[in-house]
Amino acid sequence: MTPADLEYLGKFLKERSGLVLVGDKTYLIESRLMPIARRHNIASLSALIAKMRGNAALESEIVEAMTTNETFFFRDKVPFELFSDHMMPLLKTARAAQRRVRIWCAACSTGQEPYSLAMILEEQAAKYPGFNFEIYATDLSSEVLNKAKAGRFSQFEVQRGLPVQMLVKYFEQVGDQWEISPKIRQKVQFRPINLLRDFGPLGSFDIIFCRNVLIYFDEKTKTDILNRMSSAVAADGFLVLGAAETVVGLCDRFKAVPEKRGLYVRSSPTEGALPLRLVSGLR
Could you tell me the domains of the chain? Predict the structure, then answer.
């Protein structure tokens, strides 16, 4: 692949998905795009780049291949512990009247994150009698969303982070795969969303998980997404970022919750926010 091909691919991916190719990404590009080239009987990456220009179907394949990221059940236990032990108890009090909590998993990939949250809520259902939980899971890639909706995972995938007791309780073996139970699958609504575009129609959420996504964007794109997410999260809601991500220097509409890694709240809660005594209880 020539420098000109790499430059074109970089500009194309940034415009379509926000992905920024920094440093030497030759191995990543080859590992993601050569299978596409072989599938279309194209001899080289340079030929693939040439053929993709103006070819909408091929462009979509390339975007999906380059933006599909690794995920697994209960990845980095801390956010799920914060969800179970801090966010949900506070929202139980704040939402006592409407008994409704809306959760958004942005860039959900193949669905392990939203399904992990759904299993937690099922395990703790007795704590929230009469509550209605809505989990929306979105991703740019239709390919990973289709896999997520199917709810089928390989032996390798269920062995990564999923407790054995949950595997036995919520999955059924189908051939060489494991299928998540309809009870858990129906708790999650999957939708195609590009974070670079308007996600306002999704509405307002009490909790937004946006983990290990911003690291792929440049600062301007990160700021834009965070500012728009501040409008999509309730005044007393929560934003959860990945361990290597932060709002510092990017967005002043969120502030970190002390001693709770990756957890953020709105900087200026307005009417309807959690009482200060409850927010301070997170410390």
Answer: 3-67 (1.10.155), 77-150+183-280 (3.40.50.150)
